[in-house]
Amino acid sequence: MSAAFRKAAKARQRPHRERAQPAARTKLGLLEKKKDYRLRAHDYHKKQNALRALQKKALDKNPDEFYFKMIRAEVKDGVHVIKQPKDEVTPEQVKLMRTQDIKYVEMKRVAEAKKIERLKAELHLLDAAGSGPGRHLFFVDTEREVQEFDIATRLDTVPELVDRVYNRPTIATLQRETVKGPTDPAHLKKLAQQRKNQYDLLRQRIEREKAMFVITQKIQTRKDLLDKTHKVKVKKETTTGPAIYKFKFQRKR
């Protein structure tokens, strides 16, 4: 056969195409190609080898052998479940853990109290919104002095500075020295807002410190309840305080 004839015969051949999958068998998955039989055979032999290994392990097993999963495992609703062992803690260990908890909370409370004192020292407890009404009492001897009482004269300052409870210079100081500090209304408003924010922060820290103190008391109460002495509850626990118990007096050696 000449080369020209072979070339012509090859040109007349139609390209090979995979057989289309019938629509009725689409639910069974994609049509398997000829080369996929190797993958299927490899998976089949792998599963057979695993089954043979399990059968050999079951035959070699000692029927009298005991292991803890025999008593920890059970079947619930057809599902194999392993029981989790409960944590066993002695009363001494519980006391120690509670003690560590109370030490940590107390440490945080002391740190918060130090921050409060430092913040108070910076603010000098100046007037602020929500800090409570401030009063300045003056004592006089007669009714006439009450009627003729002038607060600016009594404080020895100008009437414009009477409403200020801090940084209120006297008339002599104003005559001797010039006014120091900001006088621009916008700057004064900004300083007042900063002072208000500082007081809000101080109030939040005070509330946090009180909450930690209550937590410390509650943890200490629970720690005291671990004792086996007879006790009677006198007052229920609240959000602002721990429960109160009355313990039977017991003499210690």
UniProtKB/TrEMBL annotation:
Q: What is its main location?
A: nucleus
- Gene Ontology biological process: rRNA processing
Name a single GO cellular component.
small-subunit processome
- Give the keywords, sorted: Nucleus, rRNA processing
Task: Tell where it localizes.
Answer: Nucleus, Nucleolus
- What domain of life is recorded for the organism? Eukaryota
Q: Does the keyword Nucleus apply?
A: yes
A Pfam family hit: Utp11
Region Disordered: which residues? 1-25
Ranges annotated as biased composition (Basic residues): 7-17
- Similarity field: Belongs to the UTP11 family.
PANTHER family named among the record's database cross-references: U3 SMALL NUCLEOLAR RNA-ASSOCIATED PROTEIN 11, U3 SMALL NUCLEOLAR RNA-ASSOCIATED PROTEIN 11-RELATED
Q: What is this protein called?
A: Probable U3 small nucleolar RNA-associated protein 11
Q: Which organism is it from?
A: Dicrurus megarhynchus
Lineage start:
Eukaryota, Metazoa, Chordata, Craniata, Vertebrata
